[in-house]
Amino acid sequence: MLPSIESTFQKAGLPVPAVPQAWEASVHEQGDWLFGSEPPPAGPLIQFGSYFLAAMSNELPDGVWFGHDGYGTNNWALHYYLKVPGLVVLVQIPWGGAYVDREASEAAIRQQFAHLASLLQEFQLAQNESCVLPGRLVVLIDRELGGRWGWESSAGEPDWQFSDCPMEEAAEDLTARCAREAWQ
């Protein structure tokens, strides 16, 4: 990871989010508190809905984008958007607004980034082991809608599982699917 990314997150007292190994070299600073494999293709990161719609319609190119973005007094969040073959992860956690509990927000970021690292590790293992998965795995954490995850089949809409820990549950599901496949 680039020193500027590590420095930015370290100064804020936050961990650097995990990035799939194949994408690490492509992540560059795209602006103040904005990092990605290319400039943000769906507008400012605060526009979670735009990234969701673009990812689900495959208009969002494969890549990774993360950073701090927002507007006004309290509409600020830390964002992490990833779209690679077989996986979409979209995360928006309130951070930096005037009325946000900073300690609680930073604890949530640390927790979600730890779960993200586990999810990416399990996804990579599933790919390495050539596990047959039921479709594209989609994980969402939105400050307004909460968390959910599901497998998107060719029919379109994921089979949403609503959860307080969607990345953790998605990683567990990946592990279980690969283990079941290994026993068959």
How is this structure best described in words?
The protein is an alpha+beta fold and 184 residues long. The protein has one domain. It is 34% helix and 28% strand. The protein is built from 4 helices and 8 strands. It has helices at 3-11, 48-56, 102-128, 166-183; strands spanning 28-31, 34-36, 63-71, 75-84, 87-94, 136-142, 146-152, 161-163. An 8-stranded mixed β-sheet has the order 1-2-3-4-5-6-7-8, with helices on both faces. Helix 3 (102-128) runs parallel beside helix 4 (166-183). It is globular, with a radius of gyration of 16 Å. The model has no long low-confidence stretch (mean pLDDT 93).
Notable traits:
about 180 residues; alpha+beta; 8-stranded mixed β-sheet; 4 helices; 8 strands
How are the SSEs placed, and which strands pair?
Blueprint: H1 3-11, E1 28-31, E2 34-36, H2 48-56, E3 63-71, E4 75-84, E5 87-94, H3 102-128, E6 136-142, E7 146-152, E8 161-163, H4 166-183
Parallel strand pairs: 5-6
Antiparallel strand pairs: 1-2, 2-3, 3-4, 4-5, 6-7, 7-8
Helix pairs in contact: 3-4
